[in-house]
Amino acid sequence: MRKIVLMPAALLLMAAGSLLPAGARAECPGDAAIKAMVTDILAGKPTNPPAVVTMEDGLCAQKKLVAALEPHWGKPIGYKAALTGKAAQDAFKVTEPVRGVLLANMMLKPGAKLPAKFGARPLYEADMIVVVASADVNKATTPKEVLANLSAVHPFIELPDLVVDPSAKLNGPGIVGINVGVRHGVLGEPIKVQQTDAFLSALADMTIRVTDQTGAQLVSVPGNVILGHPLNSVVWLTKNGVTFKPGDMVSLGSFGPLLVPKAGLTATVSYMGLPGNPAISVTFE
């Protein structure tokens, strides 16, 4: 479930179905609605999430959902910028990114194996995680200023779950309300940040490739497919309500399209142009 930068009032999503009827009102969902949604999510069943209309209500729903999932999936460890690339935004009929919360137990080791049907509507995507070194990152307005306040970057394959029943009605706040589908992710080994112009350029100029077990190429995109530079995701998050602290992880968003896992597939994501040309993989059973 990838992709950042100011939130328009008309931010709408039609992932499946139509918009809420004119004049419909919603508010932050009640505890019973959140509990029912969590039950479905943990069981890997499609859910019909409670309707939310405003982004404020979507974020309120997200906060409640994250708190309800914490006993099962661990404490929050950072944030996710979602719908950061044009392909993802076009697919979900939005014009800007949205955000979610990462949880500790979602992280899997490189080479992880899991069922192709690991959720209600499972997906996978090439992504990257950066680690915050200083709270001064909250003042950053450029990728270079962001880099100065990071300690490491990690290759990352996100494994989101859209969770909604295909008949469910969703809007922009609704995708936020389901925590933008956060479920699993394969976290690669850390790459120490180099405070150089060359490293900064490598993040934008690298080529991210997704291949299958035969070597067939599924995706090939440049790093700058995310907002002109992937570190702009961090800038967007700080401008849209997130305050980072040292140690926080930040998922930067989708490099390319969301893909559907299939049994027997081993997907490898390579970051050509980063030091060592790192790669990580995941296998779906």
Percent of residues in helices comes to 10-25%
| Order of H and E elements | HHEHEEEEHEHEEHEEHEEE
Instruction: Please tally the helical runs, counting DSSP H or I stretches of 4 or more residues.
Output: 7
Multimeric state: single chain
Could you please describe the fold and organization of this structure?
With 285 residues, this protein is α+β, with helices and mostly antiparallel strands. 23% of the residues lie in helices and 24% in strands. The protein contains seven helices and 13 strands. Strands 1, 2, 3, 5, 6, 7, 8 and 11 form an eight-stranded mixed beta sheet that branches. A five-stranded mixed beta sheet has the order 4-13-12-9-10, with no helix packed on it. Helix 1 crosses helix 2. The protein is globular and about 50 Å long.
In short:
This protein is α+β, with helices and mostly antiparallel strands. It contains seven helices and 13 strands.
Summarize this structure as a short list of keywords or feature phrases.
285 residues; alpha+beta; eight-stranded mixed beta sheet; five-stranded mixed beta sheet; 13 strands; 23% helix; globular
Topology:
Elements: H1 31-43, H2 55-73, E1 76-82, H3 86-91, E2 98-103, E3 107-108, E4 112-114, E5 125-132, H4 143-147, E6 150-159, H5 172-177, E7 184-187, E8 191-192, H6 197-205, E9 207-211, E10 217-222, H7 232-239, E11 249-251, E12 266-272, E13 279-284
Parallel strand pairs: 1-11, 3-7, 4-13
Antiparallel strand pairs: 1-2, 5-6, 5-11, 6-7, 6-8, 9-10, 9-12, 12-13
Helix pairs in contact: 1-2
